[in-house]
Design a protein that fits this description.
heterodimer; A: about 100 residues; mainly beta; Archaeosine Trna-guanine Transglycosylase, Chain: A, domain 4; two-stranded antiparallel ribbon; 8 strands; globular; B: about 400 residues; alpha/beta; Rossmann fold; seven-stranded parallel β-sheet; four-stranded parallel β-sheet; about 15% strand
């Protein structure tokens, strides 16, 4: 069976693998409503439970998972590439009172 | 419009079970309470293990449990010399209009005489509630609590987001959802605050989670630290780690923080998603949410859990197909079908939603069928809270 990665929220630009991936392996990215939205080229091994980009992400662009910002790209990330601390900036600690969107 | 079957209580709340509660305000009367409850169909005994005080957190939670609509009638059974008297508890429950009786072992003259009276009361109630017939009610009469425990890599990937889909659906139908475990929200204060319905609620969210960070800091734990194991497991930032837990509450606006302290014990005052101040410890966390009025619970566990509750059905969901196969006796729903793409996140969420309704309508959870009656009230050290400036 073709291995899968799950996009948890429609707004996400990363998906999470549900099995170990080898470079060159076939992969289907599944949307929250079960559609295959991408068959990316897996360019490097990616461990189980890790993230991969499901579209090209520019340097300084937000990484979005669960529909929320979980970090910032420290370098350009190609679609299908592994996403973790090697290419995503450490968490920006929330600063009280400076958030946007609070009523 | 979706409806569920329930039992109307005199205070207009709606139960999905008809438990007879034998409430021991002090552990001194808990052994007799358990023996008495074991003899009558539908009866269940609860107590607290924080000694002979009348600490308001304990009173709030015991009384909250008695007021929960899943309880049809309450027998308060005390020893006699305890600080928290049977009358204090009974007087707080009586305004609900549900039947309340009290018995005091020292006044009755020992456990055997008490037991005879208690059994006569409970036997009569058991016969009465057997005649209750459930009626259809709208979802706005339903409150669901969500909890996670024994998490693994599949929790944030499958089970929690799927439960979140069910929560969103329940809220969109007019229902109410409570989630808690503030320790697991550390690092996502800003995300949760942005979802608050008002600036005041946003401030309450910050305060609740910041205080948990302070408690951890006081014992030398830096809660924002990501371990090498977290990163090797695929979690890149603290936000990602915490979001995996809070996603089980879904994505809807946060109506407020339900306080659970010496001054206040809040119940939801309108429908929607509510955060409760509490603990990451599974059984007490569920206990507090049920004390705040939840009639049914969804509990996610990657590694598997046996947990039930004294008066509320607990539906257990795993995102790990291996766990489901190994612990099918305990786990109600396999959300692991998301992993191989055989089922979508949304369709598993729909299945969870339907199971919540089926459970309200009378389907027994696996924990219920096995007779599990977990109940623990958690209470922080008031001295420590005072030193930290929290009270």
């Amino acid at each position: 069976m073709v291995k899968k990665a799950i996009q948890i929220d429609e707004k996400d630009n990363v998906a999470t693998t549900t099995g170990e991936l080898d470079a060159g392996e076939e992969l289907e990215v599944i949307s929250p409503d079960g559609k295959v939205i991408l068959k990316p080229k897996v360019s490097e091994p990616i461990p189980f439970g890790h993230k991969l980009a499901i579209r090209p992400i520019a340097k300084d662009e937000n990484i979005v998972k669960y529909g929320e910002i979980i970090g910032v790209a420290t370098q350009p990330i190609e679609s299908g590439a592994w996403v973790n601390t090697h290419n995503v900036g450490s968490a920006r600690m929330p600063t009280r009172g400076k958030e946007e969107g609070i009523l | 419009m979706t409806q569920f079957m329930g039992y109307a209580r005199p205070d207009k709340s709606v139960g999905v079970r008809n438990h007879l509660l034998v409430l021991a305000p002090i552990d001194c009367s808990f052994e007799p309470a358990k023996k008495i409850a074991a003899q009558v169909e539908g009866a269940v005994a609860i107590t607290q293990y924080h000694g002979c005080g009348s600490d308001s957190v304990l009173v709030h939670n015991l009384v909250g449990t008695a007021l929960n609509p899943n309880v049809a009638a309450v027998l308060v059974l005390g020893l006699g010399c305890e600080t928290l008297t049977v009358d204090t508890v009974a007087d707080s429950v009586r305004p609900s209009g549900k039947p309340v009786e009290t018995l005091v072992i020292q006044q009755e003259g020992g456990t055997l005489k008490t037991q005879e009276k208690a059994l006569r009361i409970l036997q009569r109630w058991a016969q009465e509630v057997a005649e209750f017939r459930p009626e259809p009610f709208p979802i706005r009469k339903l409150t669901l609590a969500v909890e996670c425990g024994g998490s693994d890599a599949t929790s944030g990937l499958a089970a929690n987001p799927a439960v979140g889909v069910a929560c969103d659906k329940l809220i969109d139908e007019g229902g109410t959802v409570i989630f808690s475990e503030p320790q697991e929200m550390i690092g996502t204060q800003h995300i949760l605050a942005r979802r608050a319905v008002s600036k005041q609620v946003a401030d309450e969210i910050y305060k609740m989670i910041d205080q948990d960070e302070e408690r951890l800091k006081a014992i030398g734990v830096d809660s924002r630290w990501m371990s090498a194991g977290n990163i090797d497991g695929g979690l890149t930032t603290i936000e990602e780690k915490s979001l995996g837990a809070i996603r089980k509450g879904g994505t809807r606006p946060i109506q407020g923080v339900l306080q659970n302290n010496w001054e206040r014990f809040d119940h939801p005052t309108r429908h929607g998603l509510w955060l409760q101040d509490g603990t990451g410890w599974d059984v007490p966390s569920v206990t507090h949410m049920v004390a705040a009025g939840a009639q049914v619970v969804c509990f996610t566990s990657g590694q598997g859990s046996t947990t039930g509750h004294a008066i509320a059905p607990v539906i257990k969901i795993t995102g790990n197909p291996v766990t489901y196969n190994q612990m099918e006796d305990n786990m109600d729903i396999n959300a692991g079908t998301i992993l191989d793409g055989s089922e979508s996140l949304k369709s598993v969420g729909q299945r969870i939603y339907e199971t919540v309704l089926d459970t309200c309508n009378g389907k027994k959870t696996k924990a219920e069928a096995l007779g599990y009656k977990d109940y623990i009230v958690f209470c922080r050290s008031r001295a420590a809270e005072h030193i930290l400036g929290h009270c």
